[in-house]
């Protein structure tokens, strides 16, 4: 929580002085009562003492004053809201290693299913584009809010073949994200299962994305023991994908099975297209102060037949 006028919170320093003044007044009252009646007869003169009830209404009143001071300082909290006109580029690897079956029924099928689930989690007003890559990168769908069109484009293009051109895929994705405009919040979600074998180095592209304020969220798909039908080992390149995410200002994930991949995409779908927005909660503080004052007055009226 932050405050737009935090200097007004200095008013809270008055509360300890008020408490000290109240304690001093109570001490004088007790002395006056003792002077009025000897201890031996005080029980008959004042048969019932209010005890803690004497202080409760004033305590609620002090809390109300503290809440009012907080309201004057205009408190605000940050909440996650859908980013208006945001653009996400979904870059998906369909190299030959995506035919591995260590992620059932295959890495490619699991990637497509999770990608469609991801699109279902992204707010409807957010535009999503599609890039697929093997040894070359191809933009298959410009950013759109038409989820069915994007799903169809990905299904048509995602066939396991060739090598892995991660850097080229990021460059195409970055250009697509930039085309949405400088003031439009953008992000790239990259899913891959292997080390780049073709094209440009992906790390300088990640550095460029950082400068442009476009984070890259990477998902490393597969297990270290993953193999192709011919026995070739195809472990995911988690190190490079982690470096890409870190250098771009994004976040890296690893998915070793279908459920893990779905969980990652669910998280990304609810977070990548969201932004933090300050919301003022002055009314809540003021309302709380009013309730506390009403409570203090009600207790005082019930117990002592006076407001406070």
TrEMBL record:
UniProt key word Transmembrane helix: yes
The VWFA domain, residue ranges: 87-268
Keyword Transcription regulation on entry: no
InterPro entries named among the record's database cross-references: Aerotolerance_reg_N, UPF0353/GerABKA_families, VWF_A, vWFA_dom_sf
Coiled coil: none
Transmembrane segments: 283-304
Keyword terms of this UniProt record: Cell membrane, Membrane, Transmembrane, Transmembrane helix
Pfam family, one: VWA
Domain of life (superkingdom): Bacteria
SUPFAM superfamilies named in the record: vWA-like (SSF53300)
PANTHER family xrefs: LEUCINE ZIPPER PROTEIN 4 (PTHR22550:SF5), SPORE GERMINATION PROTEIN (PTHR22550)
Protein name according to UniProt: VWA domain-containing protein
Classification lineage: Bacteria, Bacillati, Actinomycetota, Thermoleophilia, Solirubrobacterales
């Amino acid at each position: 929580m932050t405050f737009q006028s935090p200097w007004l919170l200095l008013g809270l320093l008055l509360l300890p002085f008020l408490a000290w003044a109240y304690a001093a007044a109570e001490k004088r009252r007790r002395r006056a009562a003792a002077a009025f009646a000897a201890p031996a007869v005080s029980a008959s003169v004042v048969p019932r003492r209010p005890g803690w009830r004497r202080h409760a209404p004033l305590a609620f009143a002090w809390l109300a004053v503290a809440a009012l001071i907080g309201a004057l300082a205009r408190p605000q909290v940050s909440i996650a809201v859908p980013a208006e006109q945001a653009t996400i580029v979904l870059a998906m690897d369909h190299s030959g290693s995506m035919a591995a079956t260590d992620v059932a029924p295959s890495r490619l099928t699991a990637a497509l299913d999770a990608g469609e689930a991801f699109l279902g989690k992204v707010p409807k007003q957010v535009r999503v584009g599609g890039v697929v890559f093997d040894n070359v990168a191809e933009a298959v769908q410009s950013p759109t809010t038409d989820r069915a069109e994007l799903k169809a484009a990905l299904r048509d293009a995602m066939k396991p073949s060739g090598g892995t051109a991660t850097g080229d895929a990021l460059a195409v994705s970055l250009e697509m994200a930039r085309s949405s405009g400088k003031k439009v919040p953008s992000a790239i979600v990259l899913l891959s299962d292997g080390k780049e074998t073709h094209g440009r180095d992906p790390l300088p592209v990640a550095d460029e994305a950082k400068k442009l304020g476009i984070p890259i969220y990477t998902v490393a798909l597969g297990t270290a023991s993953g193999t192709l039908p011919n026995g070739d080992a195809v472990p995911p390149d988690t190190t490079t994908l982690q470096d890409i995410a870190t250098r771009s200002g994004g976040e890296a994930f690893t998915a070793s099975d279908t459920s893990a991949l779905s969980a990652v995409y669910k998280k990304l779908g609810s977070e990548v297209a969201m932004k933090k927005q300050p919301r003022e909660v002055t009314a809540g503080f003021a309302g709380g102060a009013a309730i506390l004052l009403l409570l203090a007055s009600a207790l005082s009226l019930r117990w002592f037949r006076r407001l406070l």
